[in-house]
Amino acid sequence: MIIIHSYDKKQLQKESDDASFLLSNRNGSYAHFGNSPSSRYQGFFFFHEDRMFKIIENIASGNDQVTHLHNQFFCVTRKKGKKTESFFVPSNKHAMVFSASDAQDSSVALDVRESYDNRVWGRFYEITQEQGCTLVTFTKKTDHREDSTHDQLEYKFYIAFKTDAKNVDIRAQWIERFYEKDFIRRSFPLNRFVIEAFSCKAKKIVCAVSSKKEEAISECRFVYANAAHLKDEQQEHLRKRIDESKLIKKKMTLEQKFAGIAAINSLDSLTIHKGGGRQAVLAGLPWFFQVWARDELISLRGFMLMKQYGVVIDAIKRQAKGIQEGLLHANTASKLPSMDALGWLFVRLSQLEKKSPVQMHILLKELEAIGQKSRSHEAENGFMLSHAKETWMDSIERAGCRVEIQTLQLALYAF
After folding, report:
1. What is the pTM (predicted TM-score) of this model?
2. How far is Cα 411 from Cα 415, in angstroms, rounded to an integer?
């Protein structure tokens, strides 16, 4: 299979046996598809109230394999046989656009659940036609066969689809999947029943999801009517990010330029908006869709290079407020401390002071509070002591006085 990366009339071509791609809405939601469903973590995912939910399992169209994948960073086009298909996820919309060169028979399979939730019972789908859309109402309830309670509502989502098909055939049939990549990774379960919701012959399928019915329908209709404009806006947003960074130099090789473009786009794609419009950075998609203190603080160097100081300021302020007993926690949902995160916070503060003294001045009040809270952790013979699973290698015990923690602690003292 041939992969073509393109930007500003330049192209870089590679060969690969992996036809998968990932596109983000720059606010947590994303689309991650391959040649065919091969992992539970592929599909279209909806980021809602700091929780990640899978929505679409697959959009199937014909039996041809992908021979070409064209990555434009803001959208992806793939060639299957004589036809081409395009995927696009509009910025800040919990929506996805699928389009094809010609009307083709397509079927849409759903698997609505929290990303890590592999429960099989208590999943209810209702499929209707409303306001020119195919509307799927999904309700998740507890079930005594795998829960401590029964028939208790957990959440409800509305998924609206709009197509250019003359007819939509509502199928609502359960089908079983086997996920080959999960087998290779030993990520269980390997099999799962998903629901084939509907099929149609269409050139364009737009999906939008919300916890509110009218919001899902309204956004679906808006994205359907304005898809071309939204795509142009996203292309311009990427161009602006790249131009503002001034990181792509003429003297670079073509591979270096595309590596830089990919890095800028990836960092930008991992940003989300927290309360009050503040920005944060997810650790990684598809598996690490939380804001991890360590990962976010390490990534801030890239945002400084991109001159995206708003992200840097927001992250430092939020992380500083999270210091407890001289430490930061791994993430907001974790009770596990992150021994190295605090050191990284001060490394970034030192760099910010050198690169942007004006921005640093904004943080002075927060810094006073940091200084009072950040010097009270345990020491052993003058060295900082880590307990089990508190370092970056948090999958193993690794307790003791670890060298990188001492180095990062020096950054705190130097500041």
Report:
1. 0.93
2. 6
